[in-house]
Please model this.
Amino acid sequence: MQAGQNSLQKVICETEVEIKNADGLHMRPAMQFVDVANQFDCDVTVSNNENSVDGKSIMQMSMLAATCGTKLKIKAEGEDAQKAVNALQELVEEKHFDEPTPKV
Amino acid sequence: MKREARYEIRFTRYEKCAMEIKKGIAVSPGISIARSLVIDAEDYRIPRRVVMPAQRIVEVQRAKNAFKDAIDELTQLEVAQDESEGGKIKDIFAVHLRFLHDRSLRKKITDLVQSDLVTAEYAVSVTLREIASHFTKEKDAYISERATDIYDMERRLLKHLLGRKREDVEHLTEEVAVVVRELSPTQTAGFNKKFVKGIASDAGGRTSHAAIVARSLGIPAVVALEDLTESVSGGDTVIIDGNRGIVIVNPDDETIRQYEEYSQEFVELEHKLDAIREKPAVSRDGVKVTLLGNIEFPDEAEMVLQKGGEGIGLYRSEFLYLNRPSEPTEEDHYQAYAETVGVFEHRPVIIRTADLGADKYTQSKRFAPEPNPFLGLRSIRFCLQNLMMFKTQLHAILRASVLGEVRIMFPLITNIQELMQAKMILRDVMEDLDEESITYNKNIKVGIMIETPSAALMASTLARDVDFFSIGTNDLTQYTLAVDRGNELVSTLYSAADPAVLRLIRTVIQDAHKAQIDVHICGEMASEPEYIMLLLGMGIRTMSLTPPMIPEIKQIIRSVTVQDCNNLARTILGMNSERQISNYLRDAARKILPEAF
Model:
């Protein structure tokens, strides 16, 4: 295996997402988020204006208490960082956790 | 009460092995030296207990095991759920599983054990409640409701950490002293009474449930110890001194030796009192007093006889409803009554109809707490709204009435309508029995408990429709003085020696005498030595009390003249303050039976 050298390479990806489902990042969406994050080897950090938390920990993610309209910064560090950020962005902004968005 | 309000931590650090003496209120006499069994109420915060540094590894492992067990349990629950309702329930379990697998949560808990030297259950409880309180602060309703999930996880983990201990109350194999925040009737119903040697509780007063149970079992009890549960770990040796109201945690060898000696002397005094068992309860000037026993379980009937009781003055029937998955059948009632009546043959057995509600719940009621249960749907009110249940019990009592001298007593009557309704239902049940051709005593005596101020004030009216009154001094005192006897913040205000209570009791006795019906006392007052002379002086000739106290009360009756009691009662009823009355009664009693005080 030649992964040893490659894994030392730090790939960092960042993006900002907005919570769009009406009920916000409650338990079930938090679970979906960490489930997706855990599919990747890279570290995932999520932050709002005040706190920065581990995107793979459901406890920390749910304690962000992000409501609908909250903007979160997702930062991934590691080889598959780009893939992870893409997948998480899709979950939050396109699938919005398979939940309804607020009626305008 | 909000959950959050209970979330408070007291930082009482202590050395695990140091001897500690706690003072409370002595409510049941005797001495017990035994290992402790600490029962934590399900809802109660886990007391902070400090462990020795060497035990940290054990506590961390306990926490890990609890997580593993909880995960196993949840995995099974999750698999068992189908996708109905959009798989919502399945999702809840899935979320909980993610939390239990969360490394940062586990680390928080094990770090707390390591840094603060606390038990695994304490670390679990504090950490999860901290997270929960974080959520309850959020304004968004959807997010603040997450706290419920966190509490649920806390309960599940604690169940695995403490589960064995809780179960132990029912499956004891060695003698223990029960240490508890507050003893609930439901918990007591599950006791294996053979192994419980003493009770100590943080809350409670002289008439709390812990006290009543301890006295009926003849084991020592001390209550109102405030924070005892925080100082005791399961398995610590404790001395419960039910004579002086002291509990000693982790006593040294010298203290144990002294107590063993003292306990021996006390047993000798008890034997001396037992010797008067066969002698009648007659005053020195020849007035006969009838002493009956208060019981909760059928197997206590024997003890009443052993102690020299002449019947049952209060047979609490609630035990039939507690601690079981379904309501008792008519046959369950009948068997319990027949067993007791059989022991007493022709002597009276007064069965009180179900006194449920307030602190004693039935299966159907348990999950709908009322905001003010003692002023709510309890006792006879509950029966009158649950006629099927009420009739089932009356049917069984009537059926048992041919076996001996059974009497019926309705509790917590507050007005004449309730009495009329209860009697009408009794007649209905009698007609049912007639139709079924079942024999019963058609002239069964029917009485009521006088335990509310309204009943006491209306005693002359109520007396026309009953065969006897039984004054329940515990509730009468609580309702007259507006004091919750189980609340240690105000329990000092609770006293049957309050002049307001005594005047109501006098009214009831006088009205009963005028109507020429029997009047008994069945409250705790009748088992407290200092009140006996007063009760005799006020005209009471029948008392029903906790069985272990019968010899002592008989001894008092045999030592006094009713003439002296009349004089004492006259003096007391002229007094206006509780303190003055209490002091006067204590001094008078001390002269009669100095050993007991």
Observations:
- Residues 139 and 558 of chain B are 69 Å apart (CA to CA).
- The radius of gyration of chain B is 26 Å.
- Residues 56-80 of chain B form the longest helix (25 residues).
